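pasting input
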Amino acid sequence: MANMDLNNGTSQINANDVEAIVKKVLENMMATPSAGLSAATSQPAASRVIPRTSRVAMLTALEQYEIREYPVPPVGDGDILVKVEGCGICGTDAHEFKKDPFGLIPVVLGHEGTGEIVSMGKNVTKDSAGKPLRVGDKVVTCMIFKDNPEITMFDLNKQNVGGSDVYGLLPDDDVHLNGWFADYILIREGSTVFQVSDLDLKSRILIEPAAVLIHAVERAKSTGILRFNSRVAVQGCGPIGLLCIAILRTMGIETIVAVDGEQKRLDFAKEMGAKTGVNFKNHQGIAALTAAVEEAFDGHPADFAFQCTGAPGGHSNIYKFIRNGGGLCELGFFINNGDATINPHLDICSKELTIVGSWVYTLRDYATTFDFLKRAEGIGLPLKKLITHEYPLEQINEAHRTNLKMEGLKIAIVNK
Ligand SMILES: [Zn+2]
């Protein structure tokens, strides 16, 4: 999970329905002209050499990974053994590294991972969307269960069922190959897995964080306010805000104003499709900042705003940028960063705002994300520049320290 969560699905859909739905989404996707991402060629199973052992990066104490070597376990009839090619470092990994809030240590982290199937059990024939699976295919896992395409982390937490196939957040066990910060991962029978051989490595590493934004934009669309000609403000230009801008841009929304305190990030926001950027450090007080945002929209307030920072002050400010009858999607508070002060009369009631929250994603959003990545590449958005740092597995401590220093945007472990 990147910096967010999911939403609530109430319908009871059986597994067959889900498979049919996801399959349809993917079929539609296949009918879309692809943007020419590098494709992987599947090769016969016999050509894959499986080593006897695999390295994993085990978080054994706060801020301390140890590289350990374990035997590669036998691959069961429903299991898939994957050679890891890369895995992004998520906000969740950073929290675990610093504080272990979930009490998982010792644990092999890494859930934004992808790699190549090197072996699979005889019962494995299809991925969670019904696409055929072969040795040599590139895959990703997803923390959302396939029995309900609308289920979200919100539901999982509510039902207390999270964790059973959330690779990268599983406590260590006899298998050990439970996270993507490793050379190999064993994906167990019944897990949610997608074949994404038509996406290149960097695009595959960005699937999980991008799915969070696909979900947020779907939530925003549910207000009925977000339209082709909408003026949209995106506050916060970290990976989440930048991906948000890219998704809006691929939807054909052109009047996007980015708000951040770092000029470098604002420049990147323009590359991702923002019309212009407003640096809040250049404006003293909320009235001046609001005026600057309106000026960036040629004298108008925003029709819709996405709040992508985790700062309470950011939440308080964003209402001022939005017009009467406009909409807001708050997705910056992936974790509890404290209370924010607003004036409910001025900020919500008298403006008649429509507000949605967004956290993580649904399984359906995941399938939509594959399509988004191809579209973004097709219209020339430099999405892959979001991955600013790559480290080999043995430098995972350093990679996390770079992440904590907030240097760069998305930091990834890449196995050569
Ligand atoms: Zn994540």
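fyi The first strand starts at residue 53 and ends at 61.
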